[in-house]
Every structure is written in C-alpha cells, then in structure tokens.
C-alpha cells in the first residue's frame, strides 16, 4: 500500500464561533490545557515545530518544547548560537505549529520574536535537572563534532568544573525566544475534509478573526 492510500477520517468535535475567546492567546491556552488533560500521558503535548528563515529567506524547521505561554506570546528555550538562534538574530520572524493528532487539532502561530530577559532565562535554566544544565554547557548546538566519545568527554570535564548541582550558571549563549504573534490559526479536523479553521490577525494591537475555508 502506497502512502497515497493512507487516509483517516477526522471526527473532531465541531469548532464554532461561539466556542472561541476573542483573545486568541487565551484560546490557545485553553486548547493547550485540553490537550494536556487528554493526551499528557500519551505524548509530549508541548512539542511544536519551530520554523525560522535565514537572511535570504531560506526556511528551516525543527521541534522544540513550548515552555511558557502568556499574554505576551509563546516561549521556547535553546542555544542562541544554534542554527535557529543565528537565523532568528538575522531574521526575527518565526512560525510555530502544534499538532495533536488524536484530537484532530492543529495550532499555527507566527510573528516576530524577542529574546527572553536574562532573569527569566536564569529562572527556567535553574529549574532543569543538573545534568541537562551541564549538557547545555557541553553542547555547541548545531556545530559538528568528531564523535559521541568527544561530547561524553566534555560532559565529564563539566562534571569536574561544576561539581555542585546548585552552582551551575546559565551559559551566556543559552536563552529563550518569545514569539509575539501577529497571526494565530486554530484548525479542528472534521469529517469529509470540511475542517473548521479560524484565523486571527493582529494589527495595531487589535485582533480580527475570520473563518477560513478548509
Ligand atoms: C520532542 C523534541 C523536543 C525538543 N526540544 C527542544 C528544545 O526545547 N530546545 C532546543 O533547542 N531543541 C529541542 N529539540 C532539538 C531540536 O529539534 C533541534 O535538533 C536542535 O534544537 C537543533 O536545531 P537547529 O540546528 O536547527 O538550531 C527537541 C527535539 C525534539 C524531537
């Protein structure tokens, strides 16, 4: 059977105008909460695709974890010198997609992003397990390395450099990006490919919402 024969029906619950909050970030928070309730045991509900583009407009995409969501936007943490970090510093526009297959839902977000303040970065970094914090020091994310042994050796060196779990500082090249959305789309899969889609766009601080064709 070829890929073209793979086909599912999306029997999602209807998404109507009456279900939606006027503020799409509040609506996104509701959907994230619902996804947690239904799917947290089965999957990483905060895993999202993060798309960036370089100065020539050439896109790249990878998964990162949504770690904060509030009225300012959506935040993930990463190495600032990684490919995505370099691209976002050249071109701050970023697009995100969350997908929860079992409940037939997708959220798309796009807008410029800003770097998260150092005090917020430090607070999040401190909450990570000690070896993840050492790992952030060990990895020059996205740079080539000659072998697995080389990174494991670096990890051992970091164990000697930072023996105290409570005294591992945040690397200066590690931080967070907050996407400040100017577009948010909720997609609810429905039968016969007649999906429910709502797109909010922000202009001069005010959100407008339209239903889109599936
Ligand atoms: C489920 C999952 C979660 C991930 N979470 C993060 C994350 O929060 N931050 C991060 O920098 N990379 C994360 N990664 C790794 C990225 O996908 C990617 O490999 C890495 O950030 C390097 O990307 P870049 O070279 O495009 O910068 C995650 C990968 C997976 C599969």
Automatic annotation (TrEMBL):
Its cofactor is FMN. GO terms for molecular function: FMN binding; pyridoxamine phosphate oxidase activity. Residues 174-214 form the Pyridoxine 5'-phosphate oxidase dimerisation C-terminal domain. It holds the Pfam family PNPOx_N. Keywords: Flavoprotein, FMN, Oxidoreductase. GO terms for biological process: pyridoxine biosynthetic process. SUPFAM superfamilies: FMN-binding split barrel. Residues 43-158 form the Pyridoxamine 5'-phosphate oxidase N-terminal domain. InterPro entries: Pyridox_Oxase (IPR000659), Pyridox_Oxase_N (IPR011576), Pyridoxamine_oxidase_dimer_C (IPR019576), Split_barrel_FMN-bd (IPR012349). PANTHER family: PYRIDOXINE-5'-PHOSPHATE OXIDASE (PTHR10851:SF0), PYRIDOXINE-5-PHOSPHATE OXIDASE (PTHR10851). NCBIfam families: pdxH, PRK05679.1. This is Unannotated protein. The lineage of its organism: unclassified sequences, metagenomes, ecological metagenomes.
């Amino acid at each position: 059977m070829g890929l073209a024969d793979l086909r599912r029906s999306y029997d999602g619950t209807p998404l109507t105008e009456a279900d939606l909050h006027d503020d799409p970030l509040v609506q996104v928070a509701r959907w994230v909460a619902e996804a947690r309730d239904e799917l947290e045991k089965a999957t990483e509900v905060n895993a999202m695709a993060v798309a960036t583009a370089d100065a020539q407009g050439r896109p790249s995409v990878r998964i990162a974890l949504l770690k904060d969501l509030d009225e300012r936007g959506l935040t993930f943490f990463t190495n600032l010198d990684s490919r995505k970090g370099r691209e976002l510093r050249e071109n701050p526009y970023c697009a995100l997609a969350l997908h929860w297959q079992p409940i037939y839902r997708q959220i798309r977000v796009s807008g410029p992003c800003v770097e998260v303040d150092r005090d917020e970065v430090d607070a999040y970094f401190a909450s990570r397990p000690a070896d993840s914090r050492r790992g952030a020091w060990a990895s020059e994310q996205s740079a080539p390395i000659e072998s697995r042994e080389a990174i494991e050796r670096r990890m051992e060196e970091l164990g000697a450099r930072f023996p105290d779990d409570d005294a591992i500082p945040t690397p200066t090249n590690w931080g967070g990006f907050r996407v400040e959305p100017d577009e948010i789309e909720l997609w609810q899969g429905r039968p016969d490919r007649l999906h429910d889609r709502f797109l909010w766009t922000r202009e001069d601080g005010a959100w407008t919402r339209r239903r889109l064709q599936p």
